[in-house]
Amino acid sequence: MMNKPRRPPGQGSPAPPQRPQAHPAAPAAGRPAVPAVSARDLTVVRGSRTVLDGLTFDVAPATVTGLLGPSGSGKSTLIRAIVGTQAKVTGTLDVLGGPAGSAPLRSRLGYVTQAPSVYADLSARQNLDYFAAVLGIPRRDRDRAVAQALDDVDLASHADDLAGNLSGGQRSRVSLAVALLGAPELLVLDEPTVGLDPVLRRDLWDLFHRLAAERGTTLLISSHVMDEADRCEHLLLVREGTLLASDSPHALRTRTGSDTIEDAFLNLVESTGSPSRERHRGGTP
Ligand SMILES: Nc1ncnc2c1ncn2[C@@H]1O[C@H](COP(=O)(O)OP(=O)(O)OP(=O)(O)O)[C@@H](O)[C@H]1O
């Protein structure tokens, strides 16, 4: 039995997911699909600023949705609201059919933060073993679950390297593997491809699509890199705390007459006008 690690990871532990199993990718016949995430007039205040302002959107189950916007546009805040760690959230925010942040959701969600949440003084495999034990995966299933998660993120060859000796991108993949351990129904990833080389980025996007298609996982993936947009089935474009668009990449390009999502983004900014940079609650218009 492995000893409990001496100190906690810097960014807190990934949300404990449940034991591996496939999720129904499609609703039962005749029943409408319940959105994996449903937001109505979602507003978040941080300090004296309204950093998310009246967002309304749905995320369809078993899809790969990109949350795209420039740095500071509110992506992480939205993710924190969805996983239930953000204070001062108003409006309606339902996740997997229940209110965001409610206890039963904890085991159904996987959350991978920007900063890897792994123990530097344990190997990749030991990290996964530890989190598998925390999740309650039975000992007889643990080796297989850990090997599968390492394989999913293409880290089998580094399984016995200390996490502290891995590159930043490899550590991020250990974090992702931890989130995958319990086969979460909704996997929320904050900028998972930052700093990765193009081959690894492609492999990760392939994995994301496999998870959606084969395991019925819903993935919400934030990025400030617009050229990743075409890898998503659906996009949420945010800017300065507002939702510019919720649409497929193709539909966005078509309706804005743009060749790229970056141009579509710019066209939408021009056509909607720029919201004020500083919004204060209760301030004068
Ligand atoms: N504690 C806080 N108090 C006040 N404003 C905050 C606080 N934390 C973040 N903000 C502001 O909220 C806005 C949204 O931040 P957020 O981190 O959600 O953006 P982001 O799109 O994820 O950015 P990045 O891509 O750089 O991570 C930013 O303008 C940020 O300055």
Automatic annotation (TrEMBL):
Pfam families: ABC_tran. Residues 37-265 form the ABC transporter domain. The keyword Nucleotide-binding applies. SMART domains: AAA. CDD domains: ABC_DR_subfamily_A. It comes from the Bacteria. Residues 20-34 have a biased composition (Low complexity). Keywords: ATP-binding, Nucleotide-binding. PROSITE patterns: ABC_TRANSPORTER_1, ABC_TRANSPORTER_2. The keyword Nucleotide-binding applies. Residues 1-34 are annotated as: Disordered. One of its GO terms (molecular function) is ATP binding. InterPro entries: AAA+_ATPase, ABC_transporter-like_ATP-bd, ABC_transporter-like_CS, P-loop_NTPase. PANTHER family: ABC TRANSPORTER G FAMILY MEMBER 20 ISOFORM X1, ATP-BINDING CASSETTE, SUB-FAMILY H, MEMBER 1. This is ABC transporter ATP-binding protein. It comes from Streptomyces iconiensis.
